[in-house]
Structure formats: C-alpha cells, structure tokens
Amino acid sequence: MSMFRTLVAGTLATLALSGADVKPGVPAPPFTAQDQNGRTVKLADFTGKSVVVLYFYPKDDTPGCTKEACSLRDGFDRIKAKGAVVLGVSADDVTSHAAFSEKYHLPFPILADPGHAIIDAYGVRMPVIGVAKRVTFIIGKDGIVKDVLRDVKAAEHDEQVLKALASL
C-alpha cells in the first residue's frame, strides 16, 4: 500500500507542476526556446522591458492557426504600440516555424517546443494528441501573469489581445 501512496503522491506532484495553476497574479513560468530563425529567446529577456503576449496554438499552417497568426500580424503595430511583444509557441520544430513565418510574413518570433517543455509548464497540452491548446497569456513587465485568454477567437485575436492590454 505504501508504494501506491508514493505513486499517487508523485502523480499529484507532477500535476501540480503541470502549469494548471498558471493564472493571473502568479509568476509566469520561465522558458528558453529557439525561434523560427534559430535564435534563442528567453522570457527573462523581456523582464522590465516589455509586456509579453505569449500565445499557444496547435499547429503551423492549419486553418485556425493561420487565421490567428495573421490576425496578430495585422494588429502587430497596435500591439507593439502598447509596449508589448508577441511570442507564438507550438510543438512544431524550427524548420516548420520558419516556413510558416515566411509564408505569412509574421513579424514576431514563433518558438519551437517539440519537447512540450513550455506547453507543459503553462498547462496547455491537449490530452491524447499532445499539441497546444489555443490559449494566450499576457505577462507583465514584472514577470507576473496579468491575464489568460482561453476563449480565443482566431480571426479576432488581435482585438482580444488589445482589449486585454488596455485593461493593464
């Protein structure tokens, strides 16, 4: 029976670290990843400098994900004017991100997370299929999560982000 308790305790500890509690008011989990150009990007790079719009999406070059990325591309200048940077994250690799970014002229970094480290840290992995859910975190200059957008409307995501930024 004690082995069962150990297993359950270990499972609960893993769930506690899965990112399920990443909500407004908590520190954003740190991360380091490569973008579509092979550059290393860290959340810490933006601390004290910019608000971070960290958006997760399932897969490059799929209809909904393309609408979402293009919406953020089209609203990029207005988002940037609010002092924010946009970072996309999916489980696709750098090569896939490079093609996606080039095809749609995306002006922001897209981070490769094929090992799901960032996706799991933020608790946005879809069960069974393992890709990221469509969720956006607004992270303040202080590194604290300010808002979480879970009801993302792909074609209007720039407007959703701008509304969230206006309330900071």
UniProtKB/TrEMBL annotation:
> Can the keyword Oxidoreductase be found in this entry's annotation?
yes
What PROSITE patterns does the database record attribute to this sequence? THIOREDOXIN_2
A molecular function (GO) held by this record is: thioredoxin peroxidase activity
Name the GO terms of the biological process aspect. Answer: cell redox homeostasis; cellular response to oxidative stress
Which residue windows are coiled coil? none
- InterPro entries noted in UniProt: AhpC/TSA, Peroxiredoxin_BCP/PrxQ, Thioredoxin-like_sf, Thioredoxin_domain
What are the entry keywords?
Answer: Antioxidant, Disulfide bond, Oxidoreductase, Peroxidase, Redox-active center
Q: Which reaction does it catalyse?
A: a hydroperoxide + [thioredoxin]-dithiol = an alcohol + [thioredoxin]-disulfide + H2O
Q: What class of enzyme is it?
A: oxidoreductase
GO CC aspect terms: cytoplasm
Task: State the oligomer form and interacting partners.
Answer: Monomer.
State the family named in the UniProt similarity comment for this chain: Belongs to the peroxiredoxin family. BCP/PrxQ subfamily.
Q: Could you tell me what this protein does?
A: Thiol-specific peroxidase that catalyzes the reduction of hydrogen peroxide and organic hydroperoxides to water and alcohols, respectively. Plays a role in cell protection against oxidative stress by detoxifying peroxides and as sensor of hydrogen peroxide-mediated signaling events.
Q: How is this protein named in the record?
A: thioredoxin-dependent peroxiredoxin
